[in-house]
Every structure is written in structure tokens, then in C-alpha cells.
Specification:
Order of helices and strands: HHHH
Helix content: 40-55%
Distance between the termini: 37 Å
Number of helices: 4
Shape: extended
Amino acid sequence: MHESVKTITLDEEAYDLLKMWKTSNKESFSKVVKRVVPTPGTLGALLSYVEEAGTSSLPGNEALEEAVNLRPAVKNDPWT
């Protein structure tokens, strides 16, 4: 099966940031994006990212955890 390919443009700063996430010269930028960029809008994706990236001990996590705990039980659609 052949995957669809898209061409994107990055400025030098964005390219350098993305390149820093590569774990080897053989890793494609597509694999980096799939590994690093969480699915938007899901707390599960954020939690997975924090656990995998090892950022759980960084300052500010208490505020994030408090904000998550204060969120409404029912998710509202921001587009409606």
C-alpha cells in the first residue's frame, strides 16, 4: 500500500527544531512528527506525550494538573 505524500514548507527555525527531534539520520521527518506531535484535543494524548517525553517533573505541571481537574465533566464542542 502506498501512502499519500504532502509537501510542506518550514522556515529555518522550524526546520532546525524538527531536526533536533530526530533520533537518527535514518528516521524520517514523518516518523518524527507522528512520534512527537500528540493528537490535538485529547487529554490522553497529552498524558502519553508527558510520560514519553519525561516532562512530568518540569515546573508548571501542578498548574496544568489543577486545570485538568477543574474542567467540566462534559466536553463542549468549541466550534458550535
